[in-house]
TrEMBL record:
GO MF entries: symporter activity
TM stretches of this protein: 6-25, 77-95, 116-133, 153-170, 182-201, 247-269, 281-302, 402-430, 450-468, 474-495, 507-531, 551-569
Compartment list: Membrane
One of the GO biological process terms: carboxylic acid transport
Keyword set, alphabetical order: Cell membrane, Ion transport, Membrane, Sodium, Sodium transport, Symport, Transmembrane, Transmembrane helix, Transport
Membrane topology: Multi-pass membrane protein
Pfam family, one: SSF
Primary site of residence: membrane
Name by which UniProt lists this protein: Cation/acetate symporter
Cellular component per GO, a single term: plasma membrane
Length: 598
């Protein structure tokens, strides 16, 4: 059986499973559509939450970021994981006790204002649409390779599949589909990692293999990787971060963004009791840890595999790395995986010095330029998209065809699971918070369900269009979304739970200030998103304000949000006493019983 047939078998079987579950669990009411009827078991919800949260950025892009940036990009791991702990400990149980369907629902009622609700809807849509772009981008990468179609066609296929099971199944269908997707993605992620760890180190546990001895050279794997990348003009893989301020702010931005993600928060409304929300969060951390403990090993091993594929003489014990670098791979003898990925456009080769060999090196390193020139090199010749490394890993390591098919299904599952959750959050905000609550309170349940499905279909079309023109690769785009959510929604949620005195004026002013400042900074340094050639300033650290990356500004936006909210609150009226009593009741520790549903 050909590799394409194997891929088609795995991907097709997973699609049939997802659509079958969606039909079986089709939403029959608005409660089914929004919160899966409110009766999901904590372990089931924990697994679905893990799939919802571990997006294409986690499955496809994070290991690629670690592979390309090494230790410096471990901020993604720290920020996303730390943020989930904040969400689990400080937000999820209290929001579940409040008993609402959506984040704007909570903000609108807590701050007794439809204006606050409307602003929350706007913040939610901006963050969620930005986030879903990363999922569509990741799905396009996976589809384009494994179904051997152009990247554009891959994104449209992903949109069609999400439409089939998300629009009709709602949260009920999505929940049980995400359980299946978690099983698929975690198996798909760990099995290739085990194979590769065994090949490179003899240790079957990837996280331990990363710190084990590289079999072929006899050196510790990370030391070997440092030597290889250093010989090609790159900084050591384990090198420290230069800009500590930016590192701290980026980590904080991912943390507060994670805690403010509406599509994850909404999952905690699907369990029957407040105590179940806490258990769901704990189980989700367990399921998430399985992938997050494996990702650093996958990234480091992928980087070493790629380098030693292009420079075979560097794989074993090397006395002269300069001589080994001269023996770069002849292009016509390139392995099949490079040929395959070239067809997708995600790997590109340009023979700049016409020697017929592939040179990968850091051509932006001025100190290394002299060495490269002495070898006759005239620039880096192979461009590899970061998002392909996890998907290409089994092929690089010559693993069996069924493993390649499995990781194809896993990568697609990761992208689709999060995309479905995000699209549900968007449609719920439009149908429930805008139409049902603000525009037409008398709408029938059937009409609200229709509005929810139409708004989700519209959101899919918008996300698909923007996914065709992303502002960066998957994890970068997701990081922007986290910054937006952290700057706008997270402070309002925290103040809504822990500050009885925070009023509607302060909350609205804070959300608007945090969102506006963050978007302005992003647009200034990254350009008006999705419109090529519109960067207002060059996107380099030398031009950033105090060296703060646009991806890190969400933490600053959150600080601005808190500051503005408290300043405005000081000069405006206190909340009504019943609102203060409501906040006190939500925080009171005896809330382990059944929450009130509205």
């Amino acid at each position: 059986m050909s590799q394409f047939a194997i891929n088609l078998l795995f991907v097709g079987a997973s699609f049939a499973l997802y659509i079958g579950i969606a039909i079986w669990a089709r939403a029959g009411s608005t409660k089914d559509f929004y919160v899966a009827g409110g009766g999901v078991h904590p372990i089931t919800n924990g697994m679905a939450t893990a799939a919802d949260w571990m997006s294409a950025a986690s499955f496809i892009s994070m290991a690629g970021l670690l592979a390309s940036g090494g230790y410096a990009n471990s901020t993604f791991l720290m920020g996303w994981t730390g943020g989930y702990v904040i969400l689990a400990m400080l937000l999820a149980p209290y929001l579940r006790k409040f008993g609402k369907f959506t984040v704007p629902d909570f903000i609108g009622d807590r701050f007794y204002s439809n204006t606050a609700r409307l602003v929350a809807v706007i913040c939610l849509i901006v963050a969620s649409v930005t986030y879903v772009i990363g999922q569509m981008t990741g799905a396009g990468v996976a589809f384009s390779r494994f179904l051997e179609v152009p990247n554009t066609a891959g994104i449209w296929i992903a949109a069609a599949i999400v439409f089939l099971y998300a629009v009709f199944g709602g949260m009920k269908g999505i929940t049980y589909t995400q359980v299946a997707q978690y099983v698929v993605l975690i198996i798909a992620y760990t099995i290739p990692a085990v194979f590769i760890a065994m090949q490179l180190t003899g240790n079957p546990i990837p996280m331990f293999g990363m710190f084990s001895t590289h079999t072929e050279s006899g050196l510790p794997l990370l030391q070997k990787l440092d030597e290889v990348v250093n010989a090609l003009g790159f900084r050591d893989y384990t090198a420290d971060v230069d800009n500590k301020l930016n590192m701290v702010l980026f980590t904080l931005s991912l943390m507060v963004g994670t805690a403010g993600l509406p599509h994850v928060i909404i999952r905690f409304f699907t369990v029957p009791r407040v105590a179940d929300a806490r258990w769901s969060a704990g189980w989700a951390l367990v399921f998430i840890a399985l992938l997050y403990l494996t990702a650093p090993a996958v990234g480091s091993m992928a980087r070493l595999n790629l380098a030693t594929t292009i420079y075979p003489e560097m794989a074993g014990q090397v006395e002269d790395y300069d001589a080994a670098a001269e023996e770069a791979l002849i292009y016509e003898e390139r392995p099949g995986w490079i040929r395959t990925w070239e067809e997708t456009g995600l790997i590109n080769f340009e023979d700049k010095n016409n020697d017929g060999r592939i040179q990968i090196y850091n051509d932006s390193n001025e100190e290394y330029a002299e060495i490269a020139e002495s070898r006759g090199w005239e620039g880096n010749e192979l461009t590899v998209n970061n998002d392909i490394l996890v998907l290409a890993n089994p092929e690089i390591a010559n693993l069996p065809g069924w493993v390649i098919g499995l990781i194809a299904a896993g990568g697609i599952a990761a992208a689709l699971s999060t995309a479905a959750g995000l699209l549900l959050a968007i449609s719920s905000a439009i149908s429930h918070d805008l139409i049902k609550t603000m525009i037409n309170p008398k709408i029938t349940e059937k009409g609200e369900m229709l509005a929810a499905r139409i708004s989700m279909a519209g959101a899919i079309l918008v996300a698909t269009y923007l996914g065709l023109n992303p502002p960066g690769f998957a994890a970068q785009t997701v990081a922007l979304a986290f910054g937006i959510a952290g700057a706008s929604l997270f402070p309002a949620l925290m103040m809504g739970i822990f500050s009885k005195k925070m009023n509607n004026s302060g909350a609205v002013a804070g959300m608007l200030a945090g969102l506006a400042c963050t978007l302005l900074y992003i647009f200034t340094y990254l350009g008006w998103l999705f419109i090529p050639g519109t960067n207002m300033l060059e996107n380099t650290p030398d031009n950033w304000l105090f060296g703060i990356s646009p991806l890190s500004f969400g933490a600053v936006g959150a600080m601005i949000n808190f500051t503005v909210a408290f300043l405005v609150c000081k000069v405006t009226n206190e909340p009504p006493q019943e609102i203060q009593d409501l906040v006190e009741s939500v925080r009171y520790p005896k809330g382990a019983g059944v929450a009130v549903d509205h």
